[in-house]
Amino acid sequence: MYTLNEGEIIDSFQNLLDDLETITYASYFCELIDIAMTEEESNRELFKDFISAFYFMKNKVGDLETLSRIFELKVLNATGYGLNLDKCCICRNKLNSSTYMSLQYLGGICENCERINGINISNATYNILRYLNNLPLEKSYRVTIPDGLKEEIYKVLNTIISQNYFKKPKSLETLNFLKGS
Ligand SMILES: [Zn+2]
């Protein structure tokens, strides 16, 4: 605001307000940015992902839940809480998959290391998280998380987000309530 004298709206994303789902997810994305970043902090990469996500929603491309999970991973990465899923976060040995994730180090733990301060997750969830973590957001519309794994992936990322930022996001709660989950 200090150097900006005039602005022109390129796109107000008005049509996102036509549908309860897109309103909710759009609010959620704004809320995530708000809780994850400090006032006046600039992050071009995240801004690009944020705008891309809004265009995907506007044009109804891809699956909203999958897009949200990828956006969450991007926010975590951009703010220093990125997941490390390629190596064991204790011994640093290469990890093909895992069934345990450390909430302290935000990574997988191998069979040989002590499993503490974390959560059990399924192999499938681990693999999908790793895949999505490396996927550019512009390609998100090509993938959809299988229905049976959406809930677990949501819970894992929600736990990490709630633990690491000063505030827990609330936008999705109403929608989850309406959907009965
Ligand atoms: Zn290990």
Q: How many distinct beta strands?
A: 3
**Hetero groups:** zinc ion
List the secondary-structure elements in sequence, H or E: HHHEEEHHH
- The helix content is 40-55%
Give the integer mean of the pLDDT values: 93
Structural class: mainly alpha
Radius of gyration, in Å, reads: 17 Å
Shape: globular
Task: Please report the distance between the alpha carbons of the first and last residues.
Answer: 41 Å
Strand order of the largest sheet: 2-1-3
β-strand amount: under 5%
Tell me about the biggest sheet? 3 strands, antiparallel
Low-confidence spans: pLDDT under 50, at least 5 residues?
none
The number of helices is: 6
Short description:
This protein is mainly α and 181 residues long.
Would you mind describing this structure in some detail?
The protein has 181 residues and is mainly α. The chain is 47% helix and 4% strand. The protein contains six helices and three strands. It has helices spanning 20-36, 44-58, 64-78, 123-133, 147-164, 171-179; strands at residues 100-102, 107-108, 118-120. It has a three-stranded antiparallel beta sheet with strand order 2-1-3, with no helix packed on it. Strand 1 and strand 2 (107-108) form a beta hairpin. Helix 1 runs antiparallel to helix 6 (171-179) and helix 2 (44-58) packs antiparallel against helix 3 (64-78). The chain is globular, with a radius of gyration of 17 Å. 24% of the residues are buried. The site of zinc ion has 8 residues, from loops.
